[in-house]
């Protein structure tokens, strides 16, 4: 795989994730999906569990996605450029997927249960997802570190 192909596929994945998250928000805000619908289906004890799971998912997935990406690439410096590019692509997809999962869960909990904590956790996941936009500069920086080690 070439560098530009990796960046292109990561960027498409990233933009799709943002588009899907925005689409969910639009669907709830326009009334296509009913706000608070989960609250009437789930018993009150289950609501608390869902809220805690949503917050804990964010607390676990956001640092794992950001720090895990950096740590894994740093630990694997010294590989051939082709192996390192494959690793960068795989870890980039994983990072975007983890942040996307955290964002979607919090969107559904916020709109489905009207839980404000998920709104803030969703903002954290959204900010992290935006921060994780794959750039050529980051890829080149890791490739340079890989060459020098």
How many domains would you count in the coordinates?
A: 1
Give the CA-based shape.
elongated
Strand percent estimate: under 5%
The helix content, as a percent range, equals over 70%
Cα-based radius of gyration, to the nearest Å: 18 Å
Q: Describe the sheet with the most strands.
A: none
From the helix content, strand content and strand pairing, which structural class follows? mainly alpha
Number of helices: 6
Please provide a written account of the structure.
The protein is an all-alpha fold and about 150 residues long. It has one domain (about 5-149). Helices cover about 85% and strands about 0% of the residues. The protein contains six helices and no strands.
How would you concisely characterize the structure shown here?
This protein is an all-alpha fold. Helices cover 85% and strands 0% of the residues.
SSE layout and pairings?
Layout: H1 3-30, H2 37-41, H3 44-75, H4 81-113, H5 116-131, H6 136-148
Helix pairs in contact: 1-4, 3-4, 3-5, 4-5, 4-6
Output the keywords.
6 helices, 149 residues, mainly alpha
């Amino acid at each position: 795989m070439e560098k530009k192909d990796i960046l292109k596929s990561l960027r498409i994945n990233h933009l799709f994730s943002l588009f899907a998250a925005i689409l969910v928000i639009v669907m709830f805000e326009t009334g296509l999906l009913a706000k608070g619908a989960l609250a009437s289906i789930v018993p009150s004890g289950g609501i608390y569990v869902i809220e805690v799971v949503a917050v804990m998912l964010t607390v676990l997935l956001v640092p794992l996605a950001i720090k895990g990406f950096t740590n894994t690439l740093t630990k694997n410096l010294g590989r051939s450029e082709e192996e390192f590019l494959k690793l960068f692509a795989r870890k980039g997809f994983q990072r975007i997927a983890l942040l996307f999962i955290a964002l979607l869960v919090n969107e559904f909990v916020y709109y489905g249960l009207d839980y404000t904590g998920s709104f803030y956790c969703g903002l954290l996941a959204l900010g992290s997802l935006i921060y994780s936009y794959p750039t050529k500069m980051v890829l080149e920086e890791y490739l340079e570190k890989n060459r020098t080690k």
